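WARN  no MSA supplied for this record, continuing single-sequence
INFO  ligand: cytidine-5'-diphosphate
INFO  echoing inputs
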Amino acid sequence: MIIAVDGPAGSGKSTISKLLAKELGLVYLDTGAMYRLFTLKMLKENISFSDSDKINELLENLNINIENDRFYLDEKDVSEEIRKSEVSENVSEVSAIKEVREEMINLQRKFSSSKDVILDGRDIGTVVFPNADIKIFLVADPKERAERRYKEVIGKGGKASFQEIYESIVNRDRLDTVREISPLKKAEDGIEVDTTGKTIEEVKNMILSIYKTKSNIC
Ligand code: CDP
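INFO  complex generated
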């Protein structure tokens, strides 16, 4: 069983995917976090985004790990660091690099082999698993997505500006949509779920009912 959950920044992919994973007994993979981990590594090593040789070298020696909802780079827990604005501001540029995508997709397919999985990202239903059993495309009004992110940061005791978060989300969506390789888009057979004005519980139930309908058909 492979469930693909794609959609723009802040559409609720990871929250919903985690809940569905629990409810349906699936293993969850946050593919966005993988691109964030690699972006952090690039920033730490101060590597230019156009230096293919260095990028390939980094990819060959990459040491990333995801365990119990914590994210590790070179054995160090960087779960908070990968969500910081410096990473968010650069991740779309890094994830548009061909070699980076190829390696991440390899890792995602390897991780998912012989497991029942739910993955969230931008290209899961279109490129990583075009034969996924269920493909969900989560969308929501950009202001509401920014509002959710803002509340998340404030809720964790951090500081944030709504306007900055809003602009960063809109900018990231634009870069993710216009890029040449694996752009953010709904798969032809994807099911769009609009989460604007909906609670997490409502969205979860909408997807569960899609799952039940699909399971009865198969
Ligand atoms: O959680 P949020 O929606 O902010 O983003 P994320 O899922 O953590 O993804 C961060 C970035 O990684 C995205 O803006 C994309 O540029 C990139 N990404 C991607 O290119 N392909 C994926 N499958 C997942 C993420």
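The mean pLDDT is 96.
INFO  checksum written, moving to next record
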